[in-house]
């Protein structure tokens, strides 16, 4: 039997609970489609950091590397300076494992309501492809004389051809398997250097995908077009920071962070890819069972797709989507079930859901 | 009689038409409140650039400088490389005239519908204060070996204490005159150096405004909170690029770009401030009379406020808001009147509108 070895980083707050619930769905998909899942839990996150003083040690990186994929819950804890775990662990793994492509589907599932007028399952099915390792996330910069009137803060954004090309190539291939439209989103009227590199790469890769039309939208204008006319977009390719911001906007349009899934994808297969819900660790509701595991389950579906388990991926996505449509609220005490129970509901549904009911299964995500 | 000397840059596309319509409203306010307006038209924009090869010449800067304020329509033309006029003229003037504070009200006027569920005039009245001259807009950077696989693009973001302090100081003063809440928006978990400088400045200025509460929200999270819970915000202070993006999101929430006004404000009074609608030149509908002049009229109201004509500003804002509530669509052939006619309607309304009807006149914008 095909066996996939998953590294599991539950992390902090609601992370372990939503990950456990998502794994129930993954196991149900394995049973239905005849593959096996082996999991190894990694104790990374706030507790480990407070104990050891490092967010991500070399030994963990090497152990994680021996797996086929990483499932991450969420990190972040009030006892740790904000940003330390996010940079150290999440951004650290993205870079260590060359996960240059971040995949963020923005899809309104039937039965889920968008807060934006006019958005419906018929016109809201796009994927944001975000470069995941560069731009302002390189972290270069300095602050001189902090706290004085002479302080100057410098942040450097670095954009290279290899990571940009991998991202753009992935985006074109995806668009070619979908509705054949690609939109580059940047702010090239101001960030002229990075914008030129992105546009050059898009123009170059486009020659290899003559079936895909492409256009360009500024990042600011995207805040009008994405909510007001999502049907205009199929695949949106963008840089790290714009993708960070716009995928949260996408989450709003698709019904909330409770639905937003992501894949941190290594397109060369040189290290495992990592799958995580877009939401954070929500320490205020940790342990209450109020967290909706749908975004974690949808991220796990992306994981199955990345592992080549296409049928299992579609079934898990369909199961999560059909459970979502029944939840009265996206999280909180009114959710109508606790996190583990909703995970079991998703798992039960995986067994008999028709994957075709959530849309054209030919239209691939990965 | 008090006389204000306005420099008028109609610019390109729909810019001249919406500016002329807005000026009709300004003149009506002058008549009602007993001040005079003198205008000087400046021929800047695409035509001038195509003729001279420069977007903004020294002689124009010096002539503009002798005015009390600048009204700008819009710039951008298909015959000019995108970005050249925007950077040369708009960003050029912001920097030349030390307009370090960009003021962008996000207000849902009664009778206008927001596309976002739950947003109402009762919970949507905030102001985004954007630093207007620094960050990634400093434009520093390079692209080495463009068009080759070795290309590397660098963009530098520079943040200094003086411009940041001017912006934050302005934001606190405004919050203190409003609902006494200020939110810093940044991405300090990733942009650690710039984020630290912003947070240090906010913490320092906050000591002088003990009546104002302040908190912090990441730029990505803002894409959830701003549309879904605008009532949580009073004054949002942020950097140049985040402000650019989030004020377009604000425009979506408040009903569209047809309503989004802005002031490029020089807080030290060392050079004129500049007022412009957030929308662009829309060359496709130029000359058709389909452009809604409301955003230009609301920007002109900010101009009157900046000139100390508080009553005139409130009357013009109220007049534009009341006309807006009657327009069936925000622009296009279904607008129910052409740009000039709507300008006249706003001007007529200025004469007898009750400024208090658009809200508490004590709650200042400037
Ligand atoms: C937690 C943070 C570092 C991260 C990011 O900025 O990329 C998050 O916002 C995301 O979008 O995955
Ligand atoms: C035209 C462009 C340079 C400008 C900006 O990026 O600031 C515009 O988008 C704005 O928001 O005023």
UniProtKB/TrEMBL annotation, chains A, B:
<dbReference type="GO" id="GO:0051287">
    <property type="term" value="F:NAD binding"/>
</dbReference>
<dbReference type="InterPro" id="IPR019818">
    <property type="entry name" value="IsoCit/isopropylmalate_DH_CS"/>
</dbReference>
<protein>
    <submittedName>
        <fullName>3-isopropylmalate dehydrogenase</fullName>
    </submittedName>
</protein>
<feature type="domain" description="Isopropylmalate dehydrogenase-like">
    <location>
        <begin position="5"/>
        <end position="346"/>
    </location>
</feature>
<keyword id="KW-0520">NAD</keyword>
<feature type="compositionally biased region" description="Basic and acidic residues">
    <location>
        <begin position="354"/>
        <end position="363"/>
    </location>
</feature>
<dbReference type="Pfam" id="PF00180">
    <property type="entry name" value="Iso_dh"/>
</dbReference>
<keyword id="KW-0560">Oxidoreductase</keyword>
<dbReference type="GO" id="GO:0000287">
    <property type="term" value="F:magnesium ion binding"/>
</dbReference>
<dbReference type="InterPro" id="IPR024084">
    <property type="entry name" value="IsoPropMal-DH-like_dom"/>
</dbReference>
<keyword id="KW-0464">Manganese</keyword>
<dbReference type="GO" id="GO:0016616">
    <property type="term" value="F:oxidoreductase activity, acting on the CH-OH group of donors, NAD or NADP as acceptor"/>
</dbReference>
<dbReference type="InterPro" id="IPR050501">
    <property type="entry name" value="ICDH/IPMDH"/>
</dbReference>
<keyword id="KW-0479">Metal-binding</keyword>
